[in-house]
Amino acid sequence: MSESSPLPPVRLTSEAELARDALATPLLSRAARLARWAGPDTRVGAGGELVEEQLPGAADALGLTGDDAAATASEAWRVAVDSGLVEIVDEEEGTVAAGADLALLTSGAPQDVLGVWLTALEAVLADASVPDLDDLVDAMDGGGEIDFSSLDWDPEAEAEFLDGVLGNLYLLTVSEGGAGESPVPLPALAASMIVPDDMGEPTNDVLEQVSDAMMRLDDQFRLLEPAGLVDFQPVDETLMADTDEESSAAADDADVSRYGMVRLTPLGLYGLRARLLESGRTAPAVGDLADKGADALLDGTAAFPPTAARAETEQWLARREPLAAARELLAAARGGDAGAPLRRLHCQQALSLVGLEAEPALREVLDDAELGGLARVWLSEHGAADVPPPSEAMIFWLTIDTIAAQLAAEGNSAELQGLVEGLAQQHGGFFAAAWRVDHPATPDVLEAMGRLHPDKKVAKEARKAAFKARSQQGG
C-alpha cells in the first residue's frame, strides 16, 4: 500500500458495539481476569512477568489446562501489565496492584475500552514480529545470551513487513470491488508484498519467497486472531507434510482455502484505521463529514467511490431538514474554480436523495447561471409542474460543466468518450457554438473532446474550437 495514495473510506460499526467486541476478545478478557485475580501475594520478576510458581494459579484463574496453559497465562499477564490493567507497585519486592485502566473496562466509555484494547493490540503486534521460541533457543550461546546475528532477523524490517501486510489487507477490505467481508487467501496476501507489480510470470525464486512469507503470516495471524483483529483459517498442516503438493502460489481455486484464509473483523478495521491515523495517514470513515458543512461534504466525497459517497451523503442528509439541506448544498455548489464542476455533480447526486420537500430551494435558483440547469433537471425528474425550458446558452453551459466534472472524476473514460461521440453526432454545429460558452473549463473540455473523439475530422474541429475558446478567455 503506497503511503501517498488516498485510502477509501471505511464503514465502521458503532463504538459501543466495537467496545463489546473488544471486551469479548481472548486477549483483553484474559488480561482483565488476571488483573482482578492478582492480589497482595502476587509476585513478579524484574521484567514484570509472573514468577514461575504462580503461573499454575494464573492458568487456573483463566480455566486453562494442558501443556500450553502456563505459557498462555504468562502471555495474558504480560498484556495486562503492558495495557495498564496491572501496575508494578514495588519492583524490588515484585508486588503489584490493579492498574488505573482496569476500572475503565467496566465504568469507562466505549472509547476508553477501545483505548485499552488498542494498547494491548500493540503488544501483540510487537510479539508477532519476533522469531518463534524454537529459533530463539537455537540462537542462544553458551552463556544464555541470544545471538541475534544468527537469527537473520531485522526487528525493524519484520515490523514493517507485518505493517505492510496489514495495510494491504485493510485496503483490500475497504476498496470498492475489493474483498469486503470476504476472506483473502493467504498466498494472495503474501504475493502482494513480494511480487513486483510489473512482473508477468513470477520466477521460481519469487514463488519460494511467497511461500516463505505465507508461512510467516500463518504464524503471525495465529497470534493476532485472539486479539480480535482477524478471523483466520490457518494453513492446512497436511500440506506441509505432503511433498507432492504444488507451491502455495500455484494453488487452484478449489484448494485455495487450504493455504489459509484471513479477513479483518469490524474491530480489526477499527484498530488498523486507528494505527493508520496515528502514523499520519489520512484514513477517512463514512460519517466523518456528517456534522460538517455542505462544502466539506461535496469536496470530501470527491475522491470517494460511488457507494461510499452515497452512504456519506445519506448520513449527512439524515441530520438535516430536506429544504435546508438542499439550500446548503446548492450554495456550496457555486463557484468558478477548477473543483466547482465536480462539486455541482456531487450536489446533483446528493439532491437526488432528497424528496419533493426540497422543491422550493430548486425553484429559487432557476435563474442562476451556474445552478439553473441542474435545478431544471431535478425538477423534471421529480415530476414538478411549470418547469421553464432552459435557454440554448444554459444547455451549452450545463454540457460543458458536466463534461468538466466527469473529466475530474474519471479522466478519459470509455463512458465519457461515448458522451463526446454522441454530442458531436447529435449537434452538427456543436463546436461552432461551444467555444463561445462563458465557462472557465470550456477550453479544457474542448481539448479533451479532441483527444477522445475517434473521428480525425471531428477531433480537429474540437481542437480548433478549444483554441478559439482559450483566445477568447485571454489564455
Number of strands: 5
Total of helices = 23
Radius of gyration: 30 Å
In round numbers, the mean pLDDT is: 88
Task: Name the poorly predicted regions.
Answer: 243-253
Class by alpha and beta content: mainly alpha
List the helices and strands in order.
HHHHEEHHHHEHHEHEHHHHHHHHHHHH
Percent of residues in beta strands: under 5%
Characterize the largest beta sheet: strand count, sense, and whether it forms a barrel: 3 strands, antiparallel
Overall shape: elongated
Total domain units: 3
Give helix % range.
55-70%
Distance between the termini: 40 Å
Descriptive tags:
475 residues, mainly alpha, 3-stranded antiparallel beta sheet, two-stranded antiparallel sheet
Architecture blueprint of SSEs:
Layout: H1 15-24, H2 26-37, H3 55-61, H4 69-82, E1 86-90, E2 95-98, H5 104-107, H6 110-128, H7 133-138, H8 155-174, E3 184-185, H9 186-194, H10 204-224, E4 230-233, H11 237-241, E5 261-264, H12 266-278, H13 294-300, H14 306-318, H15 322-333, H16 340-351, H17 359-364, H18 372-381, H19 392-410, H20 414-426, H21 430-434, H22 442-452, H23 456-472
Antiparallel strand pairs: 1-2, 3-5, 4-5
Helix pairs in contact: 1-6, 2-4, 3-4, 6-10, 8-9, 8-12, 9-10, 15-16, 16-19, 19-22, 22-23
